[in-house]
Amino acid sequence: MAFVRLAADYPVGMFGLTFEKLLIIGVIAVFLLGPERLPHYAAQLGRLVRSLRDMATGAKDRMREEMGPDFDDLDWKKLDPRQYDPRRIIREALTDVDPFAEEQSAAPVVGRAAVNENSAYLQRKRKREALGAEEPAPFDSEAT
Fold first, then answer.
1. Backbone conformation region of residue 115, classed left if phi is above 0, alpha if psi is from -120 to 50, else beta
2. DSSP state letters, 51-102
3. 3-class DSSP assignment, residue 110
4. CB of 109 within 8 A of CB of 97?
5. What's the rounded Cα separation, in Å, for the pair 111 and 98?
6. Which of the given ranges, 34-48, 61-75, 128-142, has the highest pLDDT on average?
7. Are 117 and 102 in contact (CB under 8 A)?
8. Residue 53's pLDDT band (boundaries 50, 70, 90)?
9. CB neighbours of 127 closer than 8 A, spacing ≥ 6?
10. Whole-model pTM?
């Protein structure tokens, strides 16, 4: 029983493909390609993987070359897009607290937008309050 692993124990790759599924796809590909074309396609796959690795290494070297000594000091985990939480970003944008400040207060102060006294909402509210309880609301014949 110690050697038996459940499918949930295996890591899931891209598009939900597990190791078993990839192995089955590989076996089917071997049977479809046949022994005469298999070495050719295996060599092409090897060249593709090698060229992708060379491109990644070249991009890394070029970035190190252009950034200079700052490249080694850069914290790449801060730039990882998976760490961004939209709720946290909005919460920080709506607070007046500077996230990079040395000291932070215990309770963040929420910023308020300036009130526009001439807004349509406030004008309607003033008219409604001025009417009183007995008077009917104004009627607009051009309204839909």
1. beta
2. HHHHHHHHHHHHHHHHHTTHHHH--GGGG-GGG--HHHHHHHHHBSS-TT-S
3. strand
4. yes
5. 12
6. 34-48
7. no
8. very high
9. 138
10. 0.39
List pLDDT tens digits, range 100-126: 666 555 555 555 556 677 788 888 788
For residues 10-29, average pLDDT: 79
Letter for the amino acid at 33? L
Residues 6+ apart with CB under 8 A from 33: 41
Report how far apart the first and last C-alpha atoms of the chain are (Å, whole number).
74
Residues linked to residue 110 through DSSP beta bridges, in sequence order: 95
Q: What is the torsional sign of CA 86, 87, 89, 93?
A: positive
Nearest to 10 by CA among 2, 18, 1, 22: 18
Measured CA to CA, the distance from residue 51 to residue 57 in angstroms comes to 10
Distance between CA atoms of residues 47 and 10, nearest Å: 28
With the CA atoms of 23, 27, 32 and 38 taken in that order, what torsion angle do they form, in degrees rounded to the nearest 10?
90
Average pLDDT in the chain:
77
Q: What pLDDT is attached to residue 99?
A: 55
